[in-house]
Amino acid sequence: MLIIDAFAFCRAGEQQAGKLTVPELTRLRAECVSDEGGIEWQLVGGSHANGYPLLNLTVTGTVQLMCQRCLTPFVFQIQSSTKIILAKDEQTADEIDASLEDDEIEVIVGSKAFDILVLIEDEALLAIPLSPKHEVCPTKEKLDAFATAKKESPFAALKDQFLIAKPVGKIKN
């Protein structure tokens, strides 16, 4: 846990930075295929043009993800930067969010016991795609062969099990 008084941090224009390994971030670790990699982060306090407390968070690093196309691990670069306005409660957060014209700024509830580790991990998780893939899979030949392989219809196996009666003649009324 990395606890700060978020409002005092912003008022004082403080800065913190650090490095975290994948095993230190349990929710991020659950998305990865190995413990390799880690992230570096930087948090800078300040104030928004409208006077709201503002945190600037930058998260960069690498993690090992599973390619959803070829099912092999690959290194994914996390690179994210976000601006976060702090509000005293949910109602104030909603009011600030509605008044902002910038959709790039997040509004959350801050506190005097604010765990920035959760914020850092959230940002890293948001940077990971829902369906991670290589830009070009290393086993593209295997994928191409699979895609062009002739697939037998599931009904083909049934055709030999049932005899289809052919009409012998016309039915009279």
From TrEMBL:
<protein>
    <recommendedName>
        <fullName>Large ribosomal RNA subunit accumulation protein YceD</fullName>
    </recommendedName>
</protein>
<comment type="function">
    <text>Plays a role in synthesis, processing and/or stability of 23S rRNA.</text>
</comment>
<comment type="similarity">
    <text>Belongs to the DUF177 domain family.</text>
</comment>
<keyword id="KW-0690">Ribosome biogenesis</keyword>
<dbReference type="GO" id="GO:0005829">
    <property type="term" value="C:cytosol"/>
</dbReference>
<dbReference type="Pfam" id="PF02620">
    <property type="entry name" value="YceD"/>
</dbReference>
<dbReference type="GO" id="GO:0042254">
    <property type="term" value="P:ribosome biogenesis"/>
</dbReference>
<dbReference type="InterPro" id="IPR003772">
    <property type="entry name" value="YceD"/>
</dbReference>
<dbReference type="InterPro" id="IPR039255">
    <property type="entry name" value="YceD_bac"/>
</dbReference>
